Amino acid sequence: MPTPLHGHFDYLPPAQGPLPPVGARVRVPFGRRRIVGLVVGHGQGSALPNARLKRIEAVLDETPLLDAPLLNLLRWAADYYHHPLGEVISAALPQTLRQGKLAIARGIERYHVTESGRTIAPDGLTRAPRQASVLRRLQANPEGITLEQLREGQDTDPRAALRALIDKGLVERHHRPCLEPPRDERPDAPALNAAQQAAISSITESLGGFTCHLLEGVTGSGKTEVYLHAIEQVLERGLQSLVLVPEIALTPQLLERFRQRLATPIAVLHSSLSDGERHCAWLSARSGEAGVIIGTRSAVFAPWARPGLIIVDEEHDASLKQQEGFRYHARDLAVMRGHREAVPVVLGSATPSLESLGNVERGQYRRIELPARAGGAVAPRLKVLDVRQQFMDEGLSTALLDAMQRHLDADGQVLLFLNRRGFSPALICHDCGWVADCHRCDARMTWHACARLLRCHHCGHETGLPARCPSCGSPLAPRGQGTERIEQALHKHFPQYPAIRIDRDSTRRKGSLESALAGVREGRYRILVGTQMLAKGHDFPNVTLAAILDADQGLFSVDFRAVERLAQTIIQVAGRSGRALRAGEVLIQTHQPDHPLLSSLLGGGYRAFARTALAERREATLPPYASLALLRAEAVDAQTPLAFLEQARDHLQTLSLPGIHPWGPAPAPMERRAGRYRAHLLLHAPRRQDLQRALGPWLTELARLPGARQVRWSIDVDPADLT
Length: 723
Description:
Elements (H helix, E strand, L loop, with lengths): L24 E6 L2 E6 L19 E2 L8 H14 L3 H8 L2 H4 L9 E6 L1 H5 L9 H11 L7 H5 L7 H9 L3 E6 L17 H12 L6 E6 L5 H14 L3 E5 L6 H11 L4 E4 L5 H13 L4 E4 L11 E7 L16 H12 L3 E5 L4 H8 L4 E5 L10 E6 L5 E2 L2 E2 H12 L3 E5 L8 E4 L16 E3 L4 E3 L6 E2 L12 E4 L3 H11 L5 E4 L9 H10 L5 E4 L1 H4 L7 E6 L13 H13 L10 E6 L5 H25 L6 E9 L3 H16 L6 E13 L2 E10 L2 H15 L9 E6 L6
Parallel strand pairs: 6-11, 6-12, 7-9, 7-10, 8-9, 10-11, 13-25, 16-23, 16-24, 22-23, 24-25
Antiparallel strand pairs: 1-2, 1-3, 4-5, 14-15, 17-21, 18-19, 19-20, 26-28, 26-29, 27-28
GO molecular function: 3'-5' DNA helicase activity; ATP binding; ATP hydrolysis activity; DNA binding; zinc ion binding
Pfam family, one: Helicase_C
EC number: 5.6.2.4
């Protein structure tokens, strides 16, 4: 059942008809509600007398919706991450199927403006405001929009307005199948180098059984081409491939390359799809109609009929870890799924996680290397810009501005990376020192000039900009740089060169990200400024200069993984430069030019950094040489979560479990967030088996502790973020 309760619930079989199979959905009474559950087993009896058991009211699936291998994977995930099985199953199903809709793919209906509808002004429909509202939405989405997307944020049903607009010839309805058919014409594949050929052979030779390959290739080395050739071999065997990417932003570009090359329908699964689109894609994957399934994190639970190959692109990316609710890691579940279903797994990255490199070290993963860029491209030159005592104009040093001018004059594109959205990360009074803090978090409000709002990036709280300092009445001054402020500075320094900002704020509207990326690749924009969205996997062949505006952000952190993430970011951003035949350059602005991380990266690349970092982790017995679990607690005051975690620690010690070391409790690095105080208790164990053996009995008892009812608490196994 989709509830936060552990364990299963017993029901009597339906009054009529056959017994529902394991893996089928049923509708049952649950308290005062009627909800949809999934059959996970047939019992010979119940601990409760039959008189107390309720009866299944309806069987929704004649055959299992989830087959035995997928259901068993979900059971394993629930056990490993210590999360209720009902919520784990719920996370694996599309919303439509959770609601009890038929498991039938009927295609997608989308509404489009006609040529007349594209040119008419909605304000002209003065006597039909609902029609005007619908028309505006459709004009803003020229690729079309579904009925359920039109309903989002609307107080009234839009169907009557749609019918009227169709009658006026302003809107038309199109029905399309769930999956786009394969294209008739496909371009020839580029020539492969020897390393790519060896990688493809290694992967295809392992088809039919489980092997985990770590495909470590420098940026631009042609990992995607290796994926495509391996998938073609899988398709020739009549099997399916599952491809995971960490970000929705990577999906359009990868999907287009796959559609150009592969003679099979492709199912796409990510959170930006409408419920109907996700329903269609999920069922097409389950039936086997889709030869390839591409998706973000939750697609690791996608069903398939003929398992063949699993690929995890950018396997190092933190986005593959779910940070709320059911806190699973899609990469680790992909490896486990491959192991359980006897299919090979490929983990691809230019900057592999230290966990994956540790598994190579232990002989659990097979390493495949692509040491050179494909197609004759040369690696970019990395250079540190020491900005100490240098004049900075809105975060841009003179040396960087000169380099930008040089590359722009040579018809190159420039990419600027700053992992900070908004206009300014702080609003300060120069006279009295007042700072615009979030009243719900231990954080400062970020000034968003475009929206004219102060916004907290941790809890989402928003407020208008004060006209003057609330404390002394003096003018307020923005401090620090965000992507909005850099974009404004670029218009001042390079007015003749079009610039575009790509971050979460500028790409909220459906289709806006795809449009922005297309504009970059077509050369309509010469300067790109953005956040992590720009650093991951994109191919911008005309970018010849990439710059990291503030490398110091990641050098100092309470999280032991922060330095690893910074190293990965630097290499990934560098990889956007010089991907074609023109040489690339990478500039790193920092106040710490002699920091060991930067020296290591510039001297020996990511491989040298990783060797040093692994040695440090081994010395400190941190992952991948140990296992961690993080118990989080929060409450409306600061002492209550700490008191509960102290009780939890004391109870753990009474269990006398070998090899388990509790660290803490302590306040979270950001103690107050969204109006609640947070605290952490970290569990450390040299062996994963010892940690799992301890968590089961310990977590069962936590709910009975005196302080448990006064806090919200959760367990995070293999935490990726300790903040």
